[in-house]
Amino acid sequence: PYVEPKAAKGGRLTLGQPGSFDSLNPFIIKGVPAANLRDFVFETLLARSLDEPFTLYPLVAESIDLAPDRSSITFNLDPRARFSDGAPITADDVLFSLEVLRDRGRPNHRTYYKKVARAERLSERSVRFVLADGGDRELPLILGLMPILPKHKLTPETFEQTSLEPPVGSGPYLVQRVDPGRAIVYARNAEYWGRDLAVNRGRFNFDEVRIEYFRDGAAMFEAFKA
After folding, report:
1. Average pLDDT, the chain
2. Quick one: how far is CA 48 from the chain centroid?
3. 45-67 tens-digit pLDDT
4. Which of 153, 205, 199, 144 has its CA nearest to residue 25?
């Protein structure tokens, strides 16, 4: 209800952001990540609707199978899903994401993903998570919001280090330009695999999104007026 499916594509949007940033990794404690990386660059298995309280829709995963007692959940990946470098998203990427975020990610990821008793690769595009506590009714949904990271581009040993190298994700935008601490520019990925998904219709319309950082609120407001 809050998007226009026939919205025109193109143009540039410039946004102001208070503070600064020194990292393009939003999944670790160290550093301050640039804004909108999670929304523009990295995708999750399922997608939220902003006007529904915890209802999720297919994104990287095209379907799920949930055990009646919620003791396990299986995610079946969309065969069209691709990272921005063209590599397909596979079950190995999902398992890698679970492990690296559980062991080296932010505290919220570590807390929830440790509740997975076992992760099983059923096929190249199917993964089953066996849950340690079937009584946690929210856990299958939380797993659906797990960001999927490229196994072929990351190593666990260096995952917790901050970096300003443009990351590889599967989202609708690419990091086009970084001015450390001052600005980040996202460019819409013309080859984005999920542009025709129902959950994305009417979204991600700007060709370029520039986020400018300001240490002073008054200066940011003056820049907005200008």
Report:
1. 95
2. 11
3. 999 998 898 899 999 999 999 99
4. 153
Separation of alpha carbons 117 and 87, rounded Å = 29
Q: With beta carbons less than 8 A apart as the criterion, state whether 22 and 163 touch.
A: no
CA-CA distance, 140 to 88, in Å (whole number)?
24
User: Which token pair is 13?
Assistant: 């949007």
What does the pLDDT look like over 167-225, one tens digit per residue?
A: 999 999 999 999 999 999 999 999 999 999 999 999 999 999 999 999 999 999 999 99
Please state, as a whole number, how many other Cβ atoms lie within 10 Å of the Cβ of residue 134. 15
∠ CA 187-191-192, rounded to 5°? 75
Given a contact cutoff of 8 angstroms between Cβ atoms, the answer to whether 129 and 50 are in contact is no
pLDDT class of 134 with cuts at 50, 70, 90: low
Element (H, E) at 223: helix 217-225
Q: Provide the 8-state DSSP code for 33.
A: B
